[in-house]
Amino acid sequence: MGTVSPPVDYTLYLVTDRGLAAGRSFEDIVREGVEGGVTLVQLREKDLAVRDFVACAVALRNLLGEYRVPLIVNDRVDVALACGAAGVHLGQDDMDCASARRIVGRGRIVGVSVSCVEEAVKAEAQGADYLGVSPVFSTPTKTDTPPAVGLEGLRAIRMAVRLPLVAIGGIKAENAADVIRAGADGLAVVSAIMACPEPRVAARTLKAAIAEARARV
Ligand code: TZP
Ligand code: MG
């Protein structure tokens, strides 16, 4: 009998950026985030040569394995497979979702960044497992983005597709509830955890805001 993967919990999705670690250990930040309630981690390190990206992914997969938290690799299907990650996250300029699915099969997660209804519908048709709605708010962490979709844009995508939606871009504890109420299944953050001096507290606070918003929906 094959193994049945547990359903993926998209609630609080940490996207890494070593550049925000400010002299601290990047692994420690991720560990503290997970201990504070992060449910999924994406390794997103654009400046690493592929050899170092693989090494970093293997180290992170081992760390996250202790907590049974899945690792998603940004951009690179080959790196995701090489390090035994749970999945890959693709932008609109990366490998298309259908091709990635042919490579990774059904046993791994394929996530796709979308900024409009048309991209969302297409990614769903191509077999994505979840969509990253990006960016919901403009953010200094990533400026080469399409215009922010805002809560209205997120609502429109929510109405158009059934896939889990993870909102990203400018998300903090203060706006977390609004984003959940607009239809996000989970929130993805970079700076709210990576740049916070207390990543465990940051994760706990975000998790509490999400739980409260869900209870009121
Ligand atoms: N994709 C769209 S916005 C973004 C990414 C990777 C960065 C989000 O960073 P932050 O610090 O959570 O606003
Ligand atoms: Mg990409």
Automatic annotation (TrEMBL):
Binding-site residues for 4-amino-2-methyl-5-(diphosphooxymethyl)pyrimidine, renumbered to this chain: Q42, L43, R44, E45, K46, N74, S113, K142
Binding site for Mg(2+): D75, D94
Binding residues annotated for 2-[(2R,5Z)-2-carboxy-4-methylthiazol-5(2H)-ylidene]ethyl phosphate, in chain numbering: T139, P140, T141, G170, V190, S191
Domain Thiamine phosphate synthase/TenI: 12-193
Enzyme class: transferase
InterPro entries for the chain: Aldolase_TIM, ThiamineP_synth_sf, ThiamineP_synth_TenI, TMP_synthase
Highest taxon above the source species: Bacteria
Gene Ontology MF annotations: magnesium ion binding; thiamine-phosphate diphosphorylase activity
Cofactor section: Mg(2+)
Reactions catalysed: 2-[(2R,5Z)-2-carboxy-4-methylthiazol-5(2H)-ylidene]ethyl phosphate + 4-amino-2-methyl-5-(diphosphooxymethyl)pyrimidine + 2 H(+) = thiamine phosphate + CO2 + diphosphate; 4-methyl-5-(2-phosphooxyethyl)-thiazole + 4-amino-2-methyl-5-(diphosphooxymethyl)pyrimidine + H(+) = thiamine phosphate + diphosphate; 2-(2-carboxy-4-methylthiazol-5-yl)ethyl phosphate + 4-amino-2-methyl-5-(diphosphooxymethyl)pyrimidine + 2 H(+) = thiamine phosphate + CO2 + diphosphate
GO terms under cellular component: cytoplasm
Pathway it works in: Cofactor biosynthesis; thiamine diphosphate biosynthesis; thiamine phosphate from 4-amino-2-methyl-5-diphosphomethylpyrimidine and 4-methyl-5-(2-phosphoethyl)-thiazole: step 1/1
Protein family: Belongs to the thiamine-phosphate synthase family.
Protein role: Condenses 4-methyl-5-(beta-hydroxyethyl)thiazole monophosphate (THZ-P) and 2-methyl-4-amino-5-hydroxymethyl pyrimidine pyrophosphate (HMP-PP) to form thiamine monophosphate (TMP).
Protein's name in the database: Thiamine-phosphate synthase
UniProt source species: Syntrophobacter fumaroxidans (strain DSM 10017 / MPOB)
